[in-house]
Amino acid sequence: MKRADKINGQMFICIIFMGLSVLLGSCVDAGVSIVEKPVISVSLLSDDNADRSAALTLDSAKGLLEALRLEGNTNVNINTGPFVMHISLERAINTISTAPVSAGTYNKVSFKFHKYNPGETVIDSDFVEIGGGPGYSFVIAGKFNDSVFIYKSPKTAVQTVNMNPGIEALSDVNQSYNVTLVVNPKDWFLKNGVEMDPRDPANQNDIDNNIQASFKKAFKDNDKNGLPDP
Q1: Structure confidence by residue, pLDDT tens digits, 189-199
Q2: 3-class DSSP state for residue 168?
Q3: How far is it, in rounded angstroms, from Cα 32 to Cα 122?
Q4: CA dist., res. 19 & res. 21, Å (int)
Q5: Range of the domain at 22
Q6: Are the beta carbons of 145 and 200 closer than 8 angstroms?
Q7: Please, how many CA atoms are within 13 Å of residue 24, restricted to the half-sphere of its CB?
Q8: How many CB atoms lie within 10 A of CB 107?
Q9: What CA–CA distance (Å, rounded) separates 118 from 111?
Q10: The pTM is what?
Q11: Within this chain, do residues 18 and 45 fall inside the same structural domain, yes or no?
């Protein structure tokens, strides 16, 4: 091999490696730009401190959500689904979802109860109507007058809850925040202070409205103690 050919070959190899380095560097930078953001989690607090009568006991509750979103001077989807949200029936905080977000101020939580539609992927068969047809967005199991019931809500509804205080997410990648969304299961089967029988179809509309309205408040709660941060 001639010396000139050898030098040209070495230069070609160097150019190839330089090109790969630039390409890989840009990929790494692109990945960092996606990952290096502040993180916000949304947690659910079940605030059920009412004394029920012996007639009604609740054993489990869950909702099918289509989307979970934070809104303010910028908006971000924390989760898109549908996905199942399990609700504790004790006073406990459970994280629903966590996602990186853009820096900004967030003062609302928006979410949509999703009624299962035929043809969708079955995430949880409890939300599916046996025999086909539209399914359900909320499933609650318990006992009323010692009789077992499973209440299924067919209602699709969008709910927006104001956050007080809200969150000002800084661009610092090491920052993490938490929003606590409060639900009141004690309200689901009450009308004018009287417990409704979940087995009676005449009570369905009132119960469905109660479920939607039971998500009453949200607030910044970075230490997840169930109390609004200063």
Answers
A1: 999 988 999 99
A2: strand
A3: 35
A4: 5
A5: 1-35
A6: no
A7: 6
A8: 17
A9: 21
A10: 0.79
A11: no
